[in-house]
Design brief:
Layout (H helix, E strand, L loop, with lengths): L1 H13 L6 H14 L8 H13 L2 H24 L11 E3 L6 H7 L2 E2 L12 H10 L4 H21 L3 E4 L7 H10 L3 E5 L17 E4 L2 H9 L6 E4 L13 E7 L6 H18 L2 E5 L7 H9 L3 E2 L7 H7 E6 L3 H8 L3 E4 L4 H9 L3 H5 L3 E2 L2
Length: 371
Amino acid sequence: MKLLKWLVFYFSKLSVIPHGKAYQKQVMEMARTRHSGVSPLLKNSLCQHDCHSRYFLRRVWFLYNLASIFLLPVLMGVLLLRKSKDAKNPIANISLTGRFPEEVKKDFSPTYVKMPFGSLRARDYKYLRAILLNSGFRPYFILRTVWKLGVYSDLVEIYSPSNVLVTQEMTFESSFLTQYLRDLGICHVNYMHGEKWFSMQDAFSSFEIAYVWEEFYKKLFEELGSDTKEYRFFKAIHPLPEPVTQLDAITYYHQLSSSPKEFTAVLQNLEKFAHSHKCELLVRLHPLQTKDYEVQMLRDRNIQQENVREVSLEKSVTRCRYVCSESSSVLYQGSLLGKTLVVDNTFPERIDIYRDLDFIVLKKIEHIYLV
């Protein structure tokens, strides 16, 4: 399952289709109509799954389903036959991620636990039956939902939690898991995973409690069809406790995907900006997907690469004068710290799409453009 998770993450970053808001609303309405008669247990998850099927490239979605056809019987056998460790280790508030916003820490004091592989118990059979009978021919949906049912069954059995904390508004099985935990008297709590705009990838995701950055995002999730019961707010970034030496610099926060040609165009515009504003230039590559050619191009152009291991993101945003990116959450974070926001409009057609999708920086926060 770890391999499957990695493949899904890898291909999803390569295959996102940049749809406009009108098209996404149409897809959402079709999904809502298609599943109008489905029980609340599965309705939102099925709707979100169908939105995902239009969000990613069809050939990639086909591969997901094809692989799931072969993996599903194996997974079912393992979950049904596997003997889980049912030793009780009561923890009231557990989290499947190791980093929590300060506000979440204050409210729940969560304990990070590793995700178990999963197993199914007698109490889970009615949920398994509902998944198999109501999902139609959606192998990938069934695979992920059944697997997570087993995972959450283990979490409940091992820890007897009162609250399960996640950051999973983009995963379609989350709404089903909210209903599953609710039936057991357990609260499913989500905190927002990075910057958000109108995206059917997040459509219909529902939790008992959801933490978002501000009212704008609460309204955004409501527009996306979320049935979340309660919203709470947390700050996207907090001021560092100790003073940080300020740099008269523009720091560019590179995102996941690019090509050598695209990266060259961005670097050329960054160099022009730094020259005209008489400031230093730093580039911070994405820690998960740094490419060798990006590192080499920075060296060839004598551009300083910010070390992600030595400089925390909070320190990076705090110390620079200009925060630059195309659509990264650092822009919003920079606005909270009074930084000058520079939107990378090297490819203006992308900016038009983000504007259409209600990207908050373009919608309501003061900014300038790179070009």
